[in-house]
Fold LysR family transcriptional regulator.
Amino acid sequence: MLLARATRRIAPTPAGDTLYGYARNMVGMEREVRARLRAASILPSSHCMPARCRRSWRHRSWTSPRTVSEP
């Protein structure tokens, strides 16, 4: 049981406190990872990747690949 109810009051049990602590840590780690990935530069990869895979920073979308059947 994660919550204990006493008349009008609801309080977390020791197991609920433990789970809440883990959940807070997980949310914090996710935020940290997202911030680090957002700050990472992809410029070095733009020299190694083919043009159709490069990110178009002007339009904030991927460039469309060319079809194989072009003349």
